[in-house]
Specification:
By secondary structure, the chain is α/β, with parallel strands linked by helices. The chain contains 7 helices and 5 strands; from the N terminus they run ααβαβαβαβαβα. Helices cover 50% and strands 12% of the residues.
């Protein structure tokens, strides 16, 4: 009985070590190449991007962006006004009435003075991987500047490369965010998932060829 318990213990230990190695390797594969692609706004000016990609986050019931999303949008509006790119893609979950990220993002940018015609809505950017894949496959982007917070930027840039995009990232860390520890924890495992998706060249998981509002 003791030998059996020891054997089971060694098995679980081996599984834990193996899982740790996989998680560590996936995170390194995502983060290390992306680090050099995180640039300043001044550096982004010479990149020649054809669009700015803003990744979705929570929106309140009245359509107000959450703090984390507002900071991404403020950076995107500033980049647009600086001439970093001629178009902005706002990519988020707009799949039903309870999720209106992309529409809310577009409305916010228009209020910030970005012309409505220059804001392209991707209503089916349900995940970071979807957003990157669809930026290339649906919206025809080739060189993008990604606007999101640093913890998320490594994976977003990795996904963009996996989708065949040339990308640079601008960090949007304007303040401390509630639940940041939770975001960081979830991101560790999200990197493993996206590393697998990029490895197998998976298409967008939404299965939708176009957004509901691409103007």
């Amino acid at each position: 009985m003791v030998k059996m318990l020891k054997g089971i213990g060694r098995l679980f230990l081996g599984m834990a070590v193996g899982a740790g190695l996989v998680i560590g390797a996936a995170n390194a594969a995502v983060c290390l190449p992306s680090a050099s692609e995180i640039v300043t706004e001044r550096e982004a000016a010479s990149f020649g991007a054809d669009c700015i990609l803003v990744l979705g986050a929570a929106v309140y019931a009245d359509g107000t962006p959450s703090a984390i999303l507002q900071d991404r949008l403020d950076v995107a509006a500033r980049l647009y006004r600086a001439g970093i790119a001629p178009k902005v893609i706002v990519s988020g979950n707009d799949s039903d009435d309870s999720h209106n990220e992309a529409r809310a993002m577009k409305a916010y940018l228009v209020l910030q003075g970005v012309p409505e015609a220059d804001v392209l809505c991707d209503a089916y950017g349900l995940t970071t991987y979807d957003s990157a894949w669809r930026a290339r496959a649906v919206f025809g982007a080739h060189r993008i500047v990604v606007a999101t917070q640093t913890y998320h930027l490594y994976r977003a840039l990795f996904d963009a490369r996996g989708a065949g995009l040339e990308a640079r990232g601008i960090a949007c860390d304007a303040r401390a965010y509630q639940h940041q520890v939770n975001y960081d924890f979830r991101e560790v495992f999200a990197r493993v998932k996206d590393a697998g998706l990029v490895l197998v060249h998976a298409p967008s998981t939404t299965g939708r060829p176009a957004s509901r509002d691409d103007s």
